[in-house]
Task: structure prediction
Amino acid sequence: DIQMTQSPSSLSASVGDRVTITCQASLDINNYLNWYQQKPGKAPNLLIYDASNLETGVPPRFSGSGSGTHFTFTISSLQPEDFATYYCQQYDNFPYTFGQGTKLEIK
Amino acid sequence: QVQLQESGPGLVKPSQALSLTCTVSGDSSSSGTYYWTWIRQPAGKGLEWIGRIHTNGVTAYNPSLKSRVTISVDPSKNQFSLRVNSVTAADTAVYYCARDRAVAGTFSFDHWGQGTLVTVSS
Result:
């Protein structure tokens, strides 16, 4: 299985901050990577697909980049509703695998 | 707007089978290639992809569960189902059904059910 490692595992930040999360794949996955946001008690929500494409309806303060084994996810200016857990997910090979998650908390 | 809804027992005894159904409703006119997927999440932990099925019946499973899992589809009812045999406490989790959208070589879970908690306990 392809292992996906996110860092950091948790992060404290303030409204208005710029935040970056990284995701490292154990093998080259091209750009076959998605990013999801999950709030407590809710299903994950797709934000970014194919490493850098913004899903329809998702605010442009969210962005993604990277290819191969190293990927980044950025929120340009944190809003109160952005405090949640974020997951990367690869679809280069079965089984699809997720990172362990990054919990973004209010400072 | 596409909606997915999981249904099934919330409590299953150890060694028995877990069975869930996902009913899909909404935008039946949407074109595209989709795979119907099950994902689970133990309390306080990360997400695990269980497997998927196309409406043509082609499946893919996570090898860690493959020997115990069956995913089936009934297009006439807009439903797909999950069966996990010989469950243990380690199968206790929130189970999500999701739509895996295939577009121009990309795949992504663009719609999810709300999730259903299944507890394995005697």
Summary: Residues 21 and 31 of chain A are 16 Å apart (CA to CA). Chain A has no helices and eleven strands. The interface with chain B takes residues 1, 32, 34, 36, 42-46, 49-50, 53, 55, 87, 89, 91, 94-101 of chain A (CB under 8 Å). The longest strand of chain A covers residues 19-25.
